[in-house]
Amino acid sequence: MDKIDLTSINLVSLDTRLANLLRTGEKPNFNEVKSRVIEFAKEVTNRLTSKEIELIDDFFREKKFTPEIIDAKIFHPKLKENPAIKWILKSGFSHS
Questions:
Q1: Is the pTM of this model over 0.90?
Q2: Do both 36 and 59 map to the same domain?
């Protein structure tokens, strides 16, 4: 799995509807939100097993989705039929 520079998260524009949802009379501290998201993402990605990384890499690089390499029991049996997954695999969508 490619290393992702999580500090570049500010390059993604925040949807104004989401920003409006976050507002509670005062402007949210987006630097604090960004920092917390980066820490959370690091915690999640650091816990991935080698099989989970392989699944993610195969999904984006090889356009293969093989959840059974992890444990087929933890995924819904019809997950491979999900329209979003099929679209990503067919469209050539890339996460980079």
A1: no
A2: no
